[in-house]
């Protein structure tokens, strides 16, 4: 596994490269824009993630977190692992581990590959790190 997070000279975290399909890019951009008033912080975070993503063909995204992917990740702060399915808001169900893309964790995971790590700010302004352990359809 590669550790793809680094720090710049100013102490800013450099985000890992991410990939999504063109269709997901369009849908997620639209979702972020339409929810900006309701969920400004996470919608801005999602919009930024979509904007910085590289567009790839679906068959080039094996092992990459996409909408509908089953994702196993580790919370780097607690060391706890969790398995979730990343879904659109209307499909979310915490009891079934179906996590919305409009959550900080969901927006952070989109486009990451197995072994990648990302840090992001939680709603209470703490920094949280996640590492993707496995991705399946």
Structure notes:
The protein has 137 residues and is α/β, with parallel strands linked by helices. The protein has one domain (15-136): Chitinase A, domain 3. 23% of the residues lie in helices and 28% in strands. The strands form three sheets. It has a five-stranded mixed beta sheet with strand order 7-6-5-9-8. Strand 5 and strand 6 form a beta hairpin. The two termini are 20 Å apart. Residues 63-136 form the Transcription elongation factor GreA/GreB C-terminal domain. Residues 16-55 form the Regulator of nucleoside diphosphate kinase N-terminal domain. This is Regulator of nucleoside diphosphate kinase.
Trace the largest sheet across and list its strands.
Answer: 7-6-5-9-8
Q: Give the radius of gyration.
A: 14 Å
CATH architecture: Roll
Share of helix, binned? 10-25%
Percent strand: 25-35%
Keywords: Kinase, Transferase
Domain Regulator of nucleoside diphosphate kinase N-terminal: 16-55
GO molecular function: DNA binding; kinase activity; RNA polymerase binding
Domain Transcription elongation factor GreA/GreB C-terminal: 63-136
TL;DR of this structure?
The chain is α/β, with parallel strands linked by helices. Helices cover about 25% and strands about 30% of the residues.
Furnish the topology, listing elements before pairings.
Blueprint: E1 6-7, E2 13-14, E3 19-20, H1 22-34, H2 40-52, E4 54-55, E5 70-75, E6 81-87, E7 98-100, H3 104-109, E8 117-121, E9 127-136
Parallel strand pairs: 3-4, 6-7
Antiparallel strand pairs: 1-2, 5-6, 5-9, 8-9
Helix pairs in contact: 1-2
């Amino acid at each position: 596994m590669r550790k793809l997070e680094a720090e710049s000279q100013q102490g800013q975290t450099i985000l890992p490269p991410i990939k999504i399909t063109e269709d997901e890019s369009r849908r997620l951009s639209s979702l972020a824009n339409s929810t900006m008033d309701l969920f400004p912080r996470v919608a801005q975070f999602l919009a930024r993630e979509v904007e910085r993503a590289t567009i790839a063909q679906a068959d080039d995204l094996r092992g990459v977190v996409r909408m509908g992917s089953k994702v196993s990740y580790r919370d780097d702060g607690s060391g706890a692992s969790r398995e979730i399915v990343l879904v659109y808001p209307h499909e979310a169900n915490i009891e079934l581990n179906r996590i919305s893309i409009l959550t900080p964790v969901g927006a952070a995971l989109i486009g990451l590959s197995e072994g990648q790590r990302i840090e992001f700010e939680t709603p209470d302004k703490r920094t949280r790190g996640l590492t993707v352990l496995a991705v399946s359809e």
